[in-house]
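Co-fold these.
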Amino acid sequence: MATQTPPGGASPQDFFAAQRRHRRAARAYSTLATFVVVAQSVPAAVMISPLAIGLLVLTTDLASLVRPVPDLVRITQDRLGHRPVATVDGLLAVLVVVAPGCLLVASTWWLTLRVLLRRGFGAAVRTLPHRHPDPRDPQEHQLVNVVAEMAAAAGIAVPEVLVLDVPGHNLAVVGGRWRRPEDPITIAVSRDVLVDLDRDGTTGVVAIAVSSAVNGDLRMAHTLCAVQAAYGIAVAVFLAPVDARARRLLRRLAAVARGTASPEQEKAAVEGALSFEGGNGVAASLAFLTWRLNFWITNLILVGPALALPWRARRYLADSTAVQLTRQPQIVLDGLQRLAGLTPRLPGASYAASCFVLDPSPDGRPADGEPDLAQEVGLAVAVHPPIGRRLERLDRLAGRTSERSPARHRPRGVLAALVLSLVLVPLAVLFVAVLLALVLTCVLLAVTVLGLGVLIVVGSLHAVLRGPA
Amino acid sequence: MTSAATWTWLGPLAALLIAVALAHNRLLRRRQLLERAWAQIDVQLARRHDLVPELVAAVQAQFGHERTTLEQLAAARTSARAAQAARTAHLTPPERAVAEVGLSQALGTLSARVGALPGLPSSHAVRRLLEDLVSTENRIAFARQHYNDTVLAYREACGRFPTAVVARAFRFRPVPFLDLPLSSPQQPG
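Predicted complex below.
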């Protein structure tokens, strides 16, 4: 379908083509992010494996007190004891070491994702002061109408509308496509947006929020954050017997899973899972330090950019979908520009930054010293793209600028390119190699200490429960 | 040997059947989306019909001299409602669009006349109804736009090879775009 051509301007970009381009980019970046996250989880899985094996052995030992259960240690000894170690399949050995941890991390991730999708960032948004729109207020009545119009444009059921009574100009969307297109959507708009934006401006920014929900952006944000949360929960499970904070976190998560937690408790549970820090004793402390180091390094050089890139592509996709819904790039552009020119910062909203149309902590610093999601999970790259680039792309969709701005195409000299390739690239490779070597060393050290600890504790308990071999 | 020979023709046949089934299901889904998109327009048109009596009552109370315009509006609404009642069995979307022309014109006229009258800003009820009227017209326009986008996707699917062969075999007929006339009510300031 053709877009309207502005008088005397360049022909506007086809928003369908723009969507296809951004969707392709988002898919490619998401695949890259998945690979990176899986690669990051391998050291974690290796570290967890001794603990998982120990837990399995102890569980079967305890179960054997009630009814006969095969002795796993004896079975393994029988299988491996009759042949020399050299003949043991190397692949099998690797699987035994890595598989329990991988399975545990994957199943924790899956469960965490379910919990996050049911509650997740929606709970964080609902912890902000909110209410349903007052039908007697003309501006709030108009907001409800605008949301219904955009829902009609997107072919979805009318979302629930909330008014946020917080100072600042921003709006968030919660819910959207997970398994069914009719999954409920909530749009929360700060009161100041209604005061300072006219009908067209409100339509533009609401269109972006609805587009984000229709494209299933929140699902992707939850999927990626579930990975971070899963590590925290996995550590909490192992530290629960010795650490009060771990037990508290697990109790909160259980309440969230049962659906009995208040929005504040849900927010605390999600925050806790994303940034769990605990550990008593030498083994736990060393494991924890290695854990954090692994995350810090890999987040800095790999995961941060890998998670930020698909999210940024999703923002651009939402913008171009908003143009498709309104068929008026100008009102999307003006609405976003006006919103960015006001105060998009919202106190208490940084944890749910991915739900908002504009970054609620635009300078990377959350309001009033509150915790920041990006900092907690160690992401060095902001998940929202710079507003200038979003406006530039919308400008092109509106046909006002047909080419990239000259500032983005500065001619680079051959010398600069040579310096880059000959000096910076080897330095970067060296830096990454040193960091990875550091991670590997730490992981090996942690696995050795944890393995020895598990061997001593589980071995002693096994001897007591099953009798000497 | 026999088994290998059987597989040489059974394998491609199975692949072909699966491809046909997938294409058929894809077209079926597109057609269902089309029906859902049309149902949305229907809902919005019914909403417009329901809004008219409220609008007539509010305008009559404030601006009694607009009697002729109001009578035309009421008559157009009755005609459009009759068309809606008959739609389920007989009328296609384009025929239904024709039935809505009179109501759109009457609403446009009333909105223009009321908007030009002095004293409108003080009438909260009329302003509110005009906002609802603007929104309803917008919703119909957006629902029509969504319907036409869905028609476009359906027609593309029907016209693309090899799905086009399946569409022809299973009688997935092309659907025309919808050109639904709308009034252009003035937005209350």
